[in-house]
Amino acid sequence: MAATPVMQLPVISECAAESCAYNHDHTCHAAAITVGDLSSPVCDTFVGADLEGGEPSVTGRVGACKMADCRHNTGLECHAPSITVGYEEEQVDCLTYAQT
């Protein structure tokens, strides 16, 4: 399968992780995040810090997804039109994750 062009990577439509260095006004500004740790759809890029990260003119996208059992995942790449990131209990997860 061919790689997904960067401009077609799924956009992060909303991020509720306000304590993340990449989050400004519910918008992720990381160029691309990684989702999953092989057992849960955690946002692997989350950085809980007082620093400001990312590029203000960029809306975050999904660069890689380790959740091979997600219906949006093909070849460890997300093919959802967009995703939402937020809290699932105590951790920051991809809320668009849907197990196959």
Describe the structure.
The protein has 100 residues and is mainly β. It is built from no helices and nine strands. It has strands at 11-15, 23-24, 27-28, 33-35, 62-65, 73-74, 77-78, 82-88, 91-94. A three-stranded mixed β-sheet has the order 1-8-9, with no helix packed on it. The two termini are 20 Å apart. The mean pLDDT is 92. This is DUF1540 domain-containing protein. InterPro entries: DUF1540 (IPR011437). It comes from Streptomyces prasinosporus.
**Care to count the β-strands?**
9
Secondary-structure element series = EEEEEEEEE
Average per-residue pLDDT, rounded, comes to: 92
State the end-to-end CA separation: 20 Å
What count of helical segments does DSSP give?
0
Radius of gyration over C-alpha positions, nearest whole angstrom: 13 Å
Biggest beta-sheet profile: 3 strands, mixed
Shape: globular
Percent of residues in beta strands: 25-35%
**Biggest sheet strand line-up:** 1-8-9
| Category from helices, strands and their pairing | mainly beta
Helical residue percent band: under 10%
Low-confidence blocks of residues: none
Protein name: DUF1540 domain-containing protein
Domain DUF1540: 15-45, 65-97
InterPro entries: DUF1540
Pfam family, one: DUF1540
